[in-house]
Write a structure and sequence with these properties.
elongated, single chain, mainly alpha, 11 helices, about 0% strand
Length: about 270
Amino acid sequence: MVGDIGRLHPDLLRDSIKEAAEGAAKGGERDRASILKIYTRKAKEMAAMYPFLFALKGGLRNRFADELYLRFGTDEWWKDIRAAMASGHAPNTVKVVNQVPISSHFANYVGDILKYIDGDSLRRTTTLSMTCGLQLLTAATFGQLRYLLGNNWHEFGSIFVGRKKGPRQITKNDFMSLTKTIMEVRNDLYHHRPISNQQACVDACERLMDHLDFHLGSFDAELSKSTYVRPVFSIAHSDRHDVQPPTDPIKKFVVMLTPAATGQSV
């Protein structure tokens, strides 16, 4: 891996060097090996966030799908909105679903999801073959789900009502703030950017999941005990993998970040 350091993610490498420099100021090491050790740890910390995001998004979609079914008495609550759109009408021209009144906000946000899945002109037919609300919500982005729920809080906020000897109430503002934190971390992870607010994201996921009767701490404990089939690598390690490239990114970042200390060995 040492020779391949020029292929590492530059942002994560930069943060690893900064952390090593801060540690060196307290008597720690800031050599190449320590920097690579920090880089590997940071990569693993980022990977460890995925199960929490996976659990939160899956749990929220499932719970919201149940709520929509209970409200409308049908698992195909978007079909009338899609039919109106396919006929050239705006989503908010639909005022009721299965005789249950809906708001313009709800209709418009459902319309956004339908266009996202089937295209602006609904040329694709993906949603026509769907038979339950969970399929539609699973195909929607987390941001679309967030706005659909958050901007119809008067209808669906009861999901997060406070309970005696249970979780405290989550308001609309709480929900939008918590999910904003989650989205920011998710976007950083998906674009391979280092994250600095892992704990804030875990706290947000934990509080939301508690209302869905899912204990995130127990899930993490089970993850720590679980094993999985590791991938098999067929290319043998050779000397060329240890050769440092002509332009050393570690030295480059040390110059950028700590120019006064560039005389130290890295």
